[in-house]
Amino acid sequence: MTATESTLRAAAERSGPGLRRKLGAVALLVLLLAAALLASLLLGARSVGLDSVLAALADFDPMDGGQVVVQSRLARTAGAVVVGAALGLAGAGLQGLTRNPLADTGILGLNAGSSLAVVVVAALLGAASLPLLMAAAFLGAALVMALVYLVASVGREGATPIKLALGGAALAVGIGSITNTILMISKSTFDEFRRWQIGSLSAGSMETYLLAVPVIAAGALLVLSTARACNAVAMGEDTALALGFNLKRSRLLGSIGVVLLAGTATAVAGPIAFVGLMIPHAVRLLVGGDYRWIMPASLLAGPVLLLLADTAGRLVLPPSEIQVGVMCAMLGGPIFIIMMRSGMKSVKL
Amino acid sequence: MSAIERSTQQEPIRHKGAAARRASRVRTAALWMVLVLLATAAAYIFWGRDRLPAIEVLQVLGGESVPGTGFILMEDRLPRLVVGALAGAGLGLSGALFQRWLGNPLASPDVIGVGFGASAAAIAAMIVFGVNDWKLNAFALAGGLAVAAVIYWLSASGQRTGSRLILAGLAIGAVLQALIQFLLTQAEVNTASDAMRWLTGSLSASTWERAAVLGVGLGAVGVLALPVVLSQLKLLELGEDAAAALGLHVGRARMLLVFAAVALGAIPIAVTGPLAFVAFLAGPITAALSRGAIHVPLAGLTGATLVVVANFFAANLFAQINLPVGVITGAFGAPFLIWVLVRANSTGNGG
Fold first, then answer.
1. For residue B47, which phi and psi values (nearest 5 degrees)?
2. For residue B51, what are the β-bridge partners?
3. Separation between Cα atoms, residue A170 and residue B40, nearest integer Å
4. Nearest Cβ partner of B342 from A102, A154, A194?
5. For chains A and B, what is the number of CB pairs under 8 angstroms?
6. Contacts of A178 in chain B (CB under 8 A)
7. Which domains does chain B have, with CATH numbers?
8. Is the pTM of this model over 0.90?
């Protein structure tokens, strides 16, 4: 073991809770995930019993109404898991790499970039295949990411968290107005994307979500590989460089991972903001500031949030439902404000 | 006499020279703005969506009645120009007031959520209550003021309100955007696409009646409140303690400023929808032109010019697809936005 590694490990362990508490937190997250999965299958405009769920999973009977309901909820449940994991981890990666507590795929405008690219491709080609849309979403998010870095790299003091957040919000307004225009010109695209554009899990099929899994896995591996670099960045950029980290390389790999995660999630479920903001902060309360724990825990916590938000959206206004993107914003906005008012005093804005 | 004393004595003189130079730059910029505004407006009268015969246009302007051309001119182009110029002026003034007060070029009402508040209230009125006349203005104003109040209340706990206020506005803006999107999905497709059109900002529903509503509303705020607000703003910018020491009732001054800034932005939003980036860009453009701080009255003029020019482009570049003017301001505004970001970053303000 090198001196670098022992320094880092010591720093990480000094600050955070002990190993037993961390393992306990992970176990808690697993339990929560199981409960949320069950809730997502059971509850909705028409709630079903546990026996229907088990029967539908074990031996599906298309004549049984309850089992059909469960079957129809399987796809969106899978979607919530895939998208939630992607957005949660993307947020953790962004916050770690940019050392910015306000970083989120929605706030920095990555989701807006993906949406624009998806809508452009769909409007130009009519019915486009999902891999094509995912590629477009990746490019859109990558472009915004590059812009964010460009803006951040100019100037003496670099990009403060609030500057990046405001810049991202402003970029999102601009990109959004172009997206709206395209939707307005093409009425068929508008109908097709009206729901998607808000962030919704109800439209996608099981195949859609399964197709996203390998891409998201690749992005997740890239982001996870930067965990140690993120820990080093948390101690200050100079320290990280002095410890021998190749920050440029880590940032590049991490950014590609984040863009893969955010772009794919947006391609399958539409832009969903605030998940990437809330999850890493919530997880930090449980496992402390070590990114080697924050990142995997975010992979578990993201799906919990999205499953609960999607289920709640089905229960609030039956038989109509509130899209998961709306639910996340309604929840995320106030939490953002609470964070700002209480916990953020330590953070330099 | 020591060096320090000498330098303090010279200070006012140098300052005066700089102020005079800046005032002359502002005058020059204002002159150019008026010229561009008038030239574009004149060009638009002749070359709108379709070209009108020059002779007929001149006849109509001379007071004769020419069927066809007269109608297009009097019921479509002129009201559009008036509504566009007034809306742009209101948005520009509103944006510049916010930017000056918060000391941040990024803190325009369309970024910090006040614009979304006005939009959400108007959309709700449109879709839920079926309102489609001057009452929309009241809803938009109420929505904008409500959001401003909430943001203000949320951020008032700290000593420095600036950056907290902006962040609170950002979060509320995101929530309201989600609400708007949700309302749009609840509506019939046709209403939704109308609402969407309005959301982008469009002059296509301009009538003399709306121009009058806009003119009266903005005129009242502009004449009654704006001069007071501008003089108080100068004091507020010295810092609230200093302003209080100079005899300003800080709380009341701030309240009036927020009211005026929100009203100037929300009244146009009710008529044309949130024309993307006009409020955001007008202020920084004046700062660049006058090489100093954002100039509020000049920003109003700049806003008007931006909208009239964008309207000209919308009519002439993309005549077939009938783009709303907000699309032009949005698309052409985006590069400028990046410029503002980079500029704010390299001068070190912006958060």
1. -110, 80
2. B47
3. 28
4. A154
5. 169
6. 327, 330-331, 334
7. 22-346 (1.10.3470.10)
8. no
